């Protein structure tokens, strides 16, 4: 009879009671706690859950539909340990509910515990029963403050941070985890630059030209070195004047002054030009000048010292030579204007007339004696000869070579001895 009553109550509960907000099955059906949605009450009966077969705790099978949290079942025949299981939606697996007896067995004196770690998963085996596995590190938050690394693993923050950067060297220093320039170099160090990746130093301050050193770069190694400003002061002073004799080796390369720039050697220093020398402006040389290469002076030229010309020299404006001039073998002086030689206030000027072609004169190889004059051949070869004046030529010495035009041309002043004409001796 009681069974019939239970069945009728269950039918009413299934068919009618769903329309109510609360349901109770069993004894005292009218006594239901306010917080209950479904309440079972009996002193002799219980709730029997669905019995399924669980072979793999990580599989929702044999359940149907999409896995949901809170499903309670009883594994009755599966290969997994028999017992009550609930589905953990977070772990996505069946979790078995352990009873007191099992817990007691786990912590008994004969308990054997072993742990196995695979990647980040810890599996504990107690008396041969393995856990489902647990993530060792569920989360790890790292933060760096002033170069100090702090770790928060599973919400537990490390007591003190670890310095990410312990030290720095080779021109770098470490301060509170920060890297800064300023340390000493510990080995030869090179910085490779290119046309696209250049190295610049901005914001440099003005230096002291009297005391500061200069940076120079070795063309072979690229090393940056310094030289004292005193080395430059030994070459020239602040106003640009030389402090001593200086030599410029041209090595067959021309030295050219272009534009309105003038060349002036104002001291008694000498000028030695081993290569071509071209000056567009005024040239004033007060010292000894030795011109070994082709020289072209386009401006007013004044040479106050001795000048030696070893190659072609062209003067395109008024030129004045106040010292001795030496023309060595194959040396040529070409003047497109006057050439003036001066001694004191008196000057001697040479000026070429209008010519239809170049004329070359070859000077004598020796000095003249008293009374000699210079004569020239058609080739321009100059030589010294004694001028004929106040001489007596006997008539008997006249030959066919001395023609009337030779005697009457006025080239020489001749005195004839007429007293000896009759004797045939004069």
What can you see in these coordinates?
It is a single chain. The protein is mostly beta strands and 426 residues long. Helix content is 7%, strand content 33%. It is built from 4 helices and 37 strands. The strands form 11 sheets. Strands 20-23-26-29-32-33 form a 6-stranded mixed β-sheet, with no helix packed on it. A hairpin with a 2-residue loop joins strand 11 (140-145) and strand 12. The protein is rod-shaped and about 190 Å long.
Q: Please state the overall shape, judged from the principal axes of the Cα atoms.
A: rod-shaped
Which radius of gyration do the C-alpha atoms yield? Answer: 62 Å
How far do the termini sit from each other?
Answer: 203 Å
User: What is the count of β-strands?
Assistant: 37
Write a concise synopsis of the structure shown.
This protein is mainly beta. Strand 36, helix 4 (404-408) and strand 37 form a beta-alpha-beta unit.
Task: Spell out the blueprint of helices and strands.
Blueprint: H1 2-15, E1 23-26, E2 38-41, E3 51-52, E4 72-75, E5 83-88, E6 93-96, H2 100-106, E7 113-118, E8 121-126, E9 129-130, E10 134-135, E11 140-145, E12 148-153, E13 156-157, E14 162-163, E15 172-175, E16 178-181, E17 214-217, E18 224-227, H3 229-233, E19 255-257, E20 263-265, E21 271-273, E22 277-279, E23 283-285, E24 289-291, E25 295-297, E26 301-303, E27 307-309, E28 312-315, E29 319-321, E30 325-327, E31 332-335, E32 339-343, E33 346-350, E34 372-376, E35 382-386, E36 389-392, H4 404-408, E37 413-415
Parallel strand pairs: 1-2, 3-4, 19-22, 20-23, 21-24, 22-25, 23-26, 24-27, 25-28, 26-29, 27-30, 28-31, 29-32, 36-37
Antiparallel strand pairs: 4-5, 5-6, 7-8, 8-9, 8-10, 11-12, 12-13, 12-14, 15-16, 17-18, 32-33, 34-35
